[in-house]
Every structure is written in C-alpha cells, then in structure tokens.
Design brief:
heterotrimer; A alpha+beta; B mainly beta; C mainly alpha; B: mainly beta; five-stranded mixed β-sheet; three-stranded antiparallel β-sheet; C: Cytochrome Bc1 Complex, Chain D, domain 2; 2 domains; three-stranded mixed β-sheet; two-stranded antiparallel sheet; about 5% strand; disordered N terminus
C-alpha cells in the first residue's frame, strides 16, 4: 500500500462524500439501527442474560464486496441429548432488516457449526446468538469493514 | 438443469460427524433495490432450507434477504445408518427444489 | 446491495487522488487479479464447492448434451465429451471458418448454434450462453493463455491496444492509466488489478452472477464515464484480443471469482 500516510485523510473524506451522494440519489427504506438490533436481540432472547466466551463468529475483518461475505458460527458443544445447541441466530446493525438467519439444530447435527455467505449493506457490527438445550443464550460479535467495488454497472440487472 | 451442487461423502463410518455443503442457483433479490424505473424490485428469495436424514430433520435454516445470492450452506450431521439425505429449499414465488443423496454407513 | 452510485462517485473522486500521487515507476511483473484479492475470496475461487461459478459450469455441461429442435443435434454429437474443448478458450478470440473477423468464444458458440444446430442465437449475456461458455472455458483451467500466431489477428490486436491507450470519457482516462500505470495501488479500498482476462466468465460478487469480459469492459467504460460501445461493436473483440495477447502465458482460472 504505497502512500497510505498521505492519502488516509483524503480517503476518509472522499468516502463520506460518496455516502452523502448515495443518500441523495436513492429514497431508501429505513435501515436497521443499533436500537433495532437491540430490539431484535430481545425478540430472540427475551430478558435472558447473554453470556460470552463459548460461541465463535468468524467473519473477515475486511470484506471486498458486501454482496457476499463468508461467515461461520460455531460453538464447542458435545451435541448430546443432554447438552446441545438448539439454535443459532445471526443479526446485524445496518442492513434494511436486523435479521440475517436462524438455524435449528440438535444432537443429530453432531457438531454445532453453520457456514453461509451473507450480505452486508455497509461496514457494521454482526451479532450471533446461540441457544443451548439448558435455555442459556451465548453471544459473539464481529465488526466488518465493507469496501466498495470499483467500476460497477449503472443499473441493477 | 443442474441448479444445486451438493457435497456429501459417499461412505462414512458409523458415529462419524461429517459436513454437508450445498450451493444453489438463486438470485436472492432483496426487495429493497430499486430498478431503473425507480420502482422497487419485488422480493424473491429462498426463505427456508432443511435437511432430513432417513426422514428425520437434522438441520434447518431460515433465510432472509441478507443471505448472499446463490446461497451456500454448510452444516454437519452424525452418521447413523445407511440411507438417504434429502435437502429442500423453498421460497418466494413457489420456489421449491428437493435433492436426494444416498449415503452408505460402514 | 446498494453500492452502485456510491461506487462510481467514489471511482471518480478517488482516481483523481490516485493519479495525482507519485506515478509508479517500476513495471510490476504480470499477475492475475486473483493475487490482488484477499484470502477469503481466493478460497472461494479455489474450492469448487464454494465457487458459485461452478453452478454455471454444471448447467453448461447439461446444455452441452442437449439436442436442439431443428437439427436435433447437441454439442456433444459433433464434438464428443466437453473435455475435448481443452485448450480452446486459451486461444480465443480467433478467426473461424467462414468469418472475415475474429470472434470471441461466446460468438463462436453462437455460430455453432445458428449454423450447425439451426437453433436461435443465445442472447448476449444470457444464462445459457454464460453456462456454455463457462463449461468450455473451464476445460482450459490451469492452461496458459496462448493466442494463435495468426498474422490476420495483428491489425485487430493493434486496434485493441490503441483503444486500451485511448483517453476517453468525462474522466478523460485510458485503460492503461489505471491498469498499467497504477496497477497494484488502491482505488478507494480496492487494489487496482493489472486487468488480465484470466478468469472469464467470472463470478463477480458485484453482479451476484457470472458474466463475460464484455460485461466487465462495459463496467469499466461506465466507470470512466465514457459511452459504452454498442452491444455488438467490434471494439469489444479488439480489446479482448489485445488483453489476451498481453496476458499470454498466464494461466486460465475459469470460473474466476472477483469482488
């Protein structure tokens, strides 16, 4: 990355200016917000406390295109009748809707891991929540920076 | 048309946990994009995926517009008996695809 | 999901920043745009089960064996298994029997359809044409690009090079200014590639679909705020010929994945 020192300040400004132009160009649906993310988390867990430490959310810190970002959510669990992951939910902060996906699994899955590819409208926080068979909720978060593609089409196909 | 790619091992040892990976053709139109005429392009997505193993559902997933086009889904299951694995994708506009894969447990 | 306008605005402004910075002096060694991507996208391309382009390759393999109404002939009826297409994509565009101009692989497939199968021409960029092109080009994966030594091609390659170096559009840019002079530097957050057509048809995340070099060139023209050439314009073939000649020896990756 040549000249990163001299261009950093300028790049930040330019990206902001571009964002403002986009806001003018499109009448867009309301985006999810930190508040709607909180509301979505409450929909999933109710008033139960969220625990950290066991759930792992793997996302690249930098996504070269928000249209497809590889994501793996996993938890170290024996996946037995007595002790397993029942569900994995993924939520986000800035897409038009806070919900990304929900997976149901159980002892037959053998391993608590889901891999898929998601869309991210913008750089933002992604939150994964797992519900275990004892009714506990586990949380993991990741921040992803989404860069914009160069030389795109002037119309959606 | 081959519109789904499925990766399942042909033979697995009993008790072994193995991964199933799937890729299917679908545009996953979000319903939040405007076309050239300024009108929103209607939502057209797969909203549910499920996997049954010898008739028992072992994994399912709710998809939203935030899942990337041509959805990739990977998950695991434990080998119990030889039999069939059925993968099913359903969604808007009557979308429904079902694929069956045989598996041998040794 | 929405980045279209943002992308082109950013392109315009950031190019000014990039081009006013110190010009790169050392000519870098040639490399595929694959190496300018991060590990996650390289992994997506490398793993056939994760590479969405393989969905088109699979569809193309089915189409290869499908018989068409008028002649009741499939591609396989003349050519045999699709593996017989090994090496073909590495030497296109090329002259073909009965044409007085070089044709791209897509155009060659359509010639086969209209002349031999007596079927309709597949629409430019259609899913079927992309699928057939993908399965044919996939047979040359890992083979070096090897344009034929055909003296008839030379004026067309020269015309392509002239277009590549022509400043055009509202930004008054040439292809060469980005992809020769500034390759390897950043355009906003993106590394500018050397623009070698190693992966076509590519699965471009921006398109969420598989697309041709022609479509990519059209995107470049829009990015430069130049008027894209007419859909059947010879300029696209000339540029493709020049780019393939310029990429001679680099390995094909079809289906490539790009952001």
């Amino acid at each position: 990355m040549p000249d990163s020192r001299s261009t950093t300040g300028r790049r930040v400004f330019l990206i902001r200016a571009a964002g403002a132009a986009a806001a003018l160009a499109f009448a867009r649906p309301a985006l999810a917000t930190p508040d709607s993310l909180q509301a979505a988390i409450k929909d999933v867990v109710g008033d139960a406390p969220l625990r950290e430490g066991r759930l792992v959310l793997e996302l690249p810190p930098l996504a070269e295109n928000g249209n497809s970002v590889s994501m793996t959510v996993s938890m170290d669990s024996p996946m037995t009748e007595a002790d397993h992951v029942r569900a994995i939910h993924v939520l986000n902060e800035k897409n038009p809707q806070p919900h990304v996906m929900s997976a149901r699994l159980g002892p037959a899955a053998g391993k608590a891991q889901v891999t898929t590819r998601i869309k991210l409208n913008d750089s933002q926080k992604v939150v994964a929540i797992a519900e275990t068979s004892d009714g506990t909720f586990w949380v993991a978060e990741a921040d992803v920076i989404v860069t914009l593609a160069a030389c795109v089409e002037d119309m959606p196909q | 048309m081959s519109n789904a790619l499925i990766n399942v091992p042909r033979t697995v040892r009993r008790g072994e946990v193995f991964q199933i990976r799937t890729l299917i053709s679908h545009r996953m139109e979000t319903g939040f994009r405007a076309g050239t005429n300024g009108q929103l392009i209607p939502r057209d997505i797969i909203d549910r995926f499920s996997c049954t193993y010898n008739g028992v559902e072992v994994f399912s997933m709710r998809l939203t517009p935030a899942i990337a086009a041509n959805p990739f889904i990977g998950f695991h299951t434990r080998a119990t008996e030889s039999g069939t694995i059925v993968l099913r994708w359903t969604g808007d506009n009557g979308f429904s695809v079902e694929e069956t894969v045989a598996i041998e447990v040794v | 999901m929405s980045g279209l306008r943002r992308g082109s605005v950013c392109l315009g402004l950031c190019l000014v920043a990039a081009l006013t910075a110190n010009a790169q002096t050392d000519a870098p060694s040639r490399r595929s745009g694959y190496h300018d991507m991060g590990k996650p996208l390289q992994a997506m391309q490398d793993d056939d089960m994760a590479n969405p382009g393989m969905l088109w390759v699979g569809e193309g393999a089915n189409l290869w064996n499908q018989r068409f109404a008028a002649a009741d002939k499939s591609c396989a009826d003349c050519h045999g298994a699709v593996q017989s297409m090994s090496g073909v994509a590495a030497r296109y565009p090329a002259f073909t029997a009965g044409s007085d101009q070089p044709v791209t692989l897509e155009q060659r497939i359509n010639l086969c359809r209209t002349q031999n199968q007596r079927a309709d021409r597949l629409a430019d960029g259609s899913r079927e044409l992309m699928a057939l092109t993908a399965v044919v080009a996939h047979q040359s994966r890992n083979q070096p690009i090897a344009p034929p030594d055909d003296p008839r091609l030379r004026p067309f390659i020269a015309a392509g090079e002239a277009l590549y170096r022509l400043r055009q559009g509202q930004l008054n840019l040439s292809c060469a200014q980005c992809h020769d002079d500034n390759a390897g530097r950043k355009l906003a957050g993106v590394t500018i590639p050397q623009a070698h057509p190693t992966g076509y048809p590519i699965y471009r995340l921006e398109w969420q679909s598989l697309g041709s070099l022609k479509r990519r060139l059209r995107n470049c023209l829009v990015g430069m705020r130049a008027e894209p050439y007419a859909p059947d314009a010879p300029e696209y073939v000339q540029l493709e010929l020049f780019l393939m000649d310029r990429a001679r020896g680099l390995k094909l990756e079809t289906p490539g994945v790009r952001p």
